Amino acid sequence: MQNKKIQHFLLFTMLLSLTAALFVPFSSAFAEEGTTTTVSEAVQQSQETEVPPVPEDIMTLTRNAGYPVDDYYRPAATIVIEANTGQVVWEDQADLSWYPASIAKMMTVYLLFDAIKEGKLALDTPVTATASDEAISQIYELSNTPIVAGVAYPVSDLLYMTTLASSNAATVMLANLVSNNDAAAFIAMMNEKAMQLGMTNTTFYNPSGAAASAFNGYYAPEGIDPEADNVSTARDLALMFYHLLKEHSEVLEYTNKFQVTVMENTDYAEVLENSNKSIPGGLYGYEGEDGLKTGASPEGAYNYAATAQRGDLRLIEVVLGVGTWDDAEGENQRHAFGNALFDYGFTNFEYKKLLEAGTQVINDKEIILEQELYGLLRNGTQPEYILSDNQQLILSNQLTEVSSSVPAPSVKYQVKEEEKEEENNASKAATSLVGTVKHSWREYAAAGVALFLSLLLFLFSRTTGSKSRQTRKQSTAHRQGAFFASIILLLAAVLIGGATFILGPWLPF
Known about the structure:
Elements: H1 2-47, H2 58-64, E1 77-82, E2 88-92, H3 105-117, E3 126-128, H4 131-137, E4 152-154, H5 155-163, H6 168-179, H7 183-197, H8 234-247, E5 259-262, E6 270-273, E7 289-297, E8 301-310, E9 313-322, H9 330-348, E10 349-355, E11 358-362, E12 365-369, E13 373-378, E14 384-387, E15 392-396, E16 410-415, H10 417-439, H11 441-461, H12 472-503
Antiparallel strand pairs: 1-2, 1-9, 3-4, 5-6, 7-8, 8-9, 10-13, 11-12, 12-16, 14-15, 15-16
Helix pairs in contact: 1-10, 1-11, 2-9, 3-6, 4-6, 5-6, 11-12
Function: Removes C-terminal D-alanyl residues from sugar-peptide cell wall precursors.
Keywords: Cell shape, Cell wall biogenesis/degradation, Hydrolase, Membrane, Peptidoglycan synthesis, Signal, Transmembrane, Transmembrane helix
Protein name: DUF1958 domain-containing protein
């Protein structure tokens, strides 16, 4: 009796083991799919992490910063981005089409620095003023500096006149220098550059922010609508400054001065004062502010673009459409809004080193970073990371880039060799196993059916028959027959499974 119990226990254990063995390939396939789903869900959950609430509107923010602004001066559009990553820390109507006015002069400056970098000219290249240049400088309606025909002005001095004093005459002289006096070609260069940078909602019709008709015939690009005004957005202008500072950071030397004297030691010397009142020393002087450009026009009202740095954090901001052209107080109010936005950025965000180069454990994976990772974080938050398939470690900080053309902060990584080898082996094994299941499903299905019938017969052999319907002898014979049939089916399942494992698919149908 004891021996029979042991036999039954061993047989039952064998049946369970065989069942598990036959279903291993299928469970492996399911596990493979489950892993993929889990990773996808993890990334999705990271992206769906609750985003910090949007701060109060620009009016409340500015008043809380200590500036008593009136709703009449509410900006039409604003944006603040971080200069290293191009990530947005504040935006309001950033894609609203607007007239940038003299901020457009900075695209002319951009193309000038491109030409200098290419070796086509230099900062000390002399530009001899023409009679047209002198005539433009005397147009009362345009912001200007005195220009005298026949006098040679260094490029560097014309730069100061363009950026600090917003001189239309100096801007045209620089544009003509870069384009070899082909005004229409220069406008084309401006638009090509805008397209290259990803400024998808920007069109230029002139180099300085004043329509061609305002130059009284002294500047008339062929084929360009003389009444057309430049059109852009706060986002596009911020993107332009992002690239300008990346490629030509020396431009700040021509925007960060409160006062500068041009044409020194000549009869044409002149002291220029920066129209940017947030430069330290100005009426709204802001610590760390070092340019870039103001602008104003009847259509665009008062505009302002600036950059400031404190510690490792540099911000770029654009404020468009403050007040109206006929109310000069808008010139001051734009700086109040700009300073308040800087306060918001510097108070709530930090740019810092997040990871050292070398070995790091990220998302439970040991990797090697090729270089340090710096990034922008909102105060009080922790960085999250995504390991992309192309071996880029990407910072996920719930902040968007100013443009889809600007990549998210990331560094290249490599998986440690031993881990990479284990992953490759596991991947090959899983792939091979899943492939075997897919190609041999008929054979494994037959083995499964045989095993299932074997289990049913085995269970039937252990039941007690009804004495009212058959004799004990007949019942015993039936149970024995079911038992031996279950053994045969079990052996068949083992043979089918084993043959399939060794030979692969072999059934003829």
